[in-house]
Amino acid sequence: METKEEIEFLYDLERLLIQRKQDLPKGSYSTKLFKKGIDKIAQKLGEEAVETIIASKNKKDSEVINETADLIYHMLVLLVERDIPLDTVIQEMMLRSKK
């Protein structure tokens, strides 16, 4: 079960990505993605989704964990690029769970 610290990490990462989008620090992978725009970010998200699917078919949990971490990171980059708060997605998920 997740802890408050683990959930807060996602919000910390979201805040960091928002700052990176504003400041565009040199040498940052996030900066590279934000400079290339939504098409590149969406492409990377798609690639990571496919890699997660492939990893899930293999026997190693570590591969699934690594690819899922990449997938979540790129999803957060996409949300920040689109100015969609993570809370908005979570609220939608909560609404759906009540149906």
TrEMBL record:
The gene is hisE. One of its GO terms (biological process) is L-histidine biosynthetic process. InterPro entries: HisE (IPR008179), PRib-ATP_PPHydrolase-like (IPR021130). It comes from Rhodohalobacter mucosus. It is an enzyme of class 3 (hydrolase). One of its GO terms (cellular component) is cytoplasm. Pathway: Amino-acid biosynthesis; L-histidine biosynthesis; L-histidine from 5-phospho-alpha-D-ribose 1-diphosphate: step 2/9. It catalyses: 1-(5-phospho-beta-D-ribosyl)-ATP + H2O = 1-(5-phospho-beta-D-ribosyl)-5'-AMP + diphosphate + H(+). Keywords: Amino-acid biosynthesis, ATP-binding, Cytoplasm, Histidine biosynthesis, Hydrolase, Nucleotide-binding. Its EC number is 3.6.1.31. Belongs to the PRA-PH family. The keyword Cytoplasm applies. This is Phosphoribosyl-ATP pyrophosphatase. GO terms for molecular function: ATP binding; phosphoribosyl-ATP diphosphatase activity. NCBIfam families: histidine_hisI. It is found in: Cytoplasm. Its main location: cytoplasm. It comes from the Bacteria.
